[in-house]
Design brief:
Layout: H1 4-14, H2 17-26, E1 31-32, H3 33-40, H4 44-56, E2 60-65, E3 68-73, H5 78-81, H6 84-92, H7 97-109
Antiparallel strand pairs: 1-3, 2-3
């Protein structure tokens, strides 16, 4: 069972439109900060700050490849399993960001 502090941290992390958009994108594809900035049209510090919040609740993983850091959704731990239906609903919801994601992935393939 979650303690109140941990539960509050998870709910606060999920209560932000930018972080919901990040969850939607990262549920579909591993992306680096530059790609995320391009899709969301936000500056790098804002993206990094929001990724850090999601990482602090163990919802997002990062991995370094050369000079880039790639972010992806983490395997949900026991605490986050309670939020799984909500996270899945975010991941599956349509959004204009997904059109831009397709363009970024096409650009990456070239």
């Amino acid at each position: 069972m979650l303690n109140e502090e941990k539960q509050s941290a998870i709910l606060k992390a999920m209560a932000d439109e930018t972080r919901l958009r990040l969850i939607r994108l990262l549920s579909r594809e591993e992306l680096n900060v530059q790609e995320i900035c391009e899709i969301l049209d936000f500056p790098q510090p804002r993206i990094s700050r929001n990724l850090s919040v999601l990482k602090s609740i163990k919802l997002v993983n990062d991995r370094r490849e050369g000079t880039r850091i790639y972010y992806s959704m983490a395997q949900l731990d026991e605490d986050l399993q309670l939020m799984a239906p909500y996270i899945d609903s975010i991941a599956q919801s349509p959004h204009a960001d997904l059109n831009l994601l397709d363009k970024i992935l096409a650009k990456r393939a070239n």
